[in-house]
Amino acid sequence: MNSSIKASTLSSENVSVWFGQRQVLSDVNLVFPANKVTALIGPSGCGKSTFIRTLNRMHELIPGAGLAGSVYLDGEDIYGQDFDAVSVRIKIGMVFQKPNPFPTMTIRDNILSGLRLSGRKAENADEVVENSLKRASIWNEVKDRLNDQAISLSGGQQQRLCIARSLAMNPQVLLLDEPCSALDPGSTRRIEETIKELSSSMTIVIVTHNMQQAQRVSDQTAFFLADDNTPGGVVEFGATEQVFSGPIDQRTNDYVNGHFG
Amino acid sequence: MSESSVTKPAPVRRKLSAGPLSTGDKLFFGTASIAANFAFVLVATILIFLLIQALPALSSQGLPFIFGTEWNNAKDPIVMQIGPMIWGSLLIGALGVVFATPLAVSLAYLIVFMLPDRSSKAAASLVDLLAALPSVILGLWGLLVFTPVAAQWSSILNSNLGWIPLFQVSTVDNGFLGSPFIAGWIVAIMIVPIITSITREVFSQLDRDLINGALALGGSRLSTFRRVIFPTSSGAVVGGVLLGLGRALGETVAIFYVLQLSFDFNWGQILEPKGGAVASMILSKFGEASQAEVSGLIAAGLVLFILTLCINFVASVIVNRAQPWRKD
Amino acid sequence: MSFAPRPSVQPWARVNKSRRYQIFLASVLPLTVTALIMVFSGLDQNLALVGVFLPLQLVAASLVGHLAFGRRGVGDSLLIVLVVFLSTFVLVLLVSVLVSLASQGAKAFSWTFLSQNNIYVSNTTSLDYGGVGHAMIGTLMIVGLTTVVTVPLGLAMAVYLTQSTSRTKGLVRTLTQAISGLPSVVAGLFIMSLALTLGWERSGLLGSMALLPLMLPTVARVAEEALRLVPVDLRYAALALGAPNYRAFFQVVLPAAKSGLVTAILLGVARIIGETAPLLLTVPINNGTSLNIFSGNMMTLPAYIYGYLASVFETSQNRAWGGALVLMILVGLLFGATRLLSRPKSLKSKPIKQKASK
Prior knowledge:
The complex is a heterotrimer of chains A (about 260), B (about 325) and C (about 350).
Chain A: E1 10-19, E2 22-32, E3 37-41, H1 48-54, E4 65-73, E5 76-77, H2 85-91, E6 92-95, H3 107-117, H4 125-135, H5 139-142, H6 155-167, E7 173-177, H7 185-198, E8 203-207, H8 211-217, E9 220-225, E10 233-239, H9 240-245, H10 250-256
Parallel strand pairs in A: 3-8, 3-9, 6-7, 7-8
Antiparallel strand pairs in A: 1-2, 1-4, 4-5, 9-10
Helix pairs in contact in A: 3-6, 4-6, 6-7
Chain B: H1 23-61, H2 64-67, E1 71-72, E2 79-80, H3 83-114, H4 117-132, H5 135-161, H6 180-205, H7 208-216, H8 221-250, H9 253-258, H10 278-286, H11 291-322
Helix pairs in contact in B: 1-11, 3-4, 3-6, 3-8, 4-6, 5-6, 6-8, 7-8, 8-11, 10-11
Chain C: H1 17-41, H2 45-69, H3 71-108, H4 111-115, H5 133-163, H6 169-180, H7 184-198, H8 204-229, H9 232-240, H10 245-256, H11 258-273, H12 277-282, H13 301-309, H14 314-341
């Protein structure tokens, strides 16, 4: 049933972002083609985490948030009249920096929570649970303890559970906001493998601090930068190999070679 | 590939969260904001209805209602003045604060910095239990158990420190009962938990490293307290004291039993069985009040409300400023 | 070398042997001297406590402090003695209240006292007859009605303060704080004014209404703190899964904050169950049992205690203590329940070592 949903192309057009009166991003134009993994890299405070939140309308939850430009999902503006935030977020899933399984629910209920939370009945629930956990490659570790509390898992397992929780919704796009920053190297490796496997069935955008990680998992890379007191923006965007081995912009070169940031 | 260097007209901000909310969400936020608006309605209603009923008394008595010293329902027109009651409330509140503050700060210091974890929790629970004591129970205990003891304290103070005007009495024959001193202690017991809990919270938010740093520099407990703990937490303590004062002004039943009310100003002889308290006066006169008097009592309540509102407002501003981590 | 018996041994807290003797002497000597002085000179105990014991204890403590740490030890010992002395004083007051309640209240306390009402009871009637049954029923009904109305209101306010992005939050919070400072007697006067203006009769219902503004801020504030303790990440996670706000609240935030919200309700009830002045102003008292909260007279526990408190008759005073004991037991039960609920339970998604649960 995974194959019944196709991956989609996501793109941003002239996206600028404010917090209150302070502009933090200016004119971001990016295209995230279907079945590709795109990494967003850049030093802290350059606005890459803020940007990824505009892609599924999580940004607007922050009081004082402002936005200009458009984000298109298969050509349709997700901030337009025809969309509401809820239907956007169902199509575009998100995994956060720190693992955040629902502490009052079991592992199984966590997987099904998305369906329940968006008011849909979970038909063939067992199948959904098994499928999602398998796609997040955590099935073998938890299949015997589906009714344990989710917080009894280790940090890395929790994060893969969170990925599985998003997968249960069959999203067309999956956004990952520094998903490995709180995890140990072993867990990080497993999540990277999961990301690669998933890219065959969906579009993936990942924010990362770790340049090796970007090189390992992504097909294309966007480098964000914010100079002092100016809004952040995209300095360079292209195929990952090219961005890392032959960047056009001097600043990109400095950053990927570890001269700052 | 995108370059952002091209000059363009300033981007137009889009209206966010304009996406149509689902019916469920509309209902959810609607209900919540109705409830929140109820706070406005409540405060307004309280003021309006108190004012409606207080107006006859306020207009007939004028300004002397607040400053005068006579309440006589036998006169025609009736005379209602609550000056000594307002002053008495403030005096008792001040005494309560003076008694309670050292106790509360000590307790907070004990709980946060001295006791090991488990007994610290137990002590904190006891303080919370003190806060949960109903005032009628405190009044009962105050009248039947505490008053004799406090009268003894009064006698000791009077015989040893009687040369200070504060501790003088006109006669020792009445056994030091019903004085503002006793009422002040009862009030102090009620506000100790309030000050303690706020002080405790500030103490426990203090940077451990800051304190350890001070100790590492060769500072002692005392100097750490004086130089580090006190300066950073004094603001919140003041706020807590004011909150306690607000509570003290409103205290009714507990004071009612231990205080001798008098419509004669007692400027500061705290052992004299002569005091005032607006709230207790309302309770004492309510039973046999005529229609005109009821209006006067409601007017007294209005004065009390405005007084406590002001004190609480200042208090919460101070407390909020002293607890920046509470902001959201 | 053997292992320490407890895992949390703090070697720096160890005191050497001679210093232990000094501390022991410094704590026992002042007490003994004071006791001896009291016995032989008949000095008043209060005076002895403040005039003899405290100075002696301060001197003794500063001596030990000086022996141990030199000059800075003196200040520290004084600080410690003072803090312990003042804290103990509060503890003594609290214990005195509780002990008086238990010892005096026990005289009246019996099944009869709990179950009967107060009809045909005079000031001198034996304690074998009459009790607080009617007052307990009245209190439970009036407080119950207030709770039923206030809890949804307070929770909704807490939801507004934590879940919405509205700009008037600060104002609402300030107003809630202002209401929490409302003197209870003014709450009674407010409802009385309302009744006078609209021509309503005094009844249990008015009592319930008078208690509402007293309970509301407690429920709203404690519930707000409980909701605030739920990590915002959880809410975002739910919203990111496509949940509407209300589902995110009811299915994720509410279950995570459950015990805190129950605490809010319990504290709210504890706040008003002993309120006296508002009820005296709005509910006409009754010696019989009334089940009609909407009209007529009704008795409550606080009003019962209040009525007997100032009596010169011993049995009446006993009844007041008995009523107070019943009230305190109710408060104690509520209080104990909140303590049980506040046991730390981790909501954060901390990795916990796998437990064997199969």
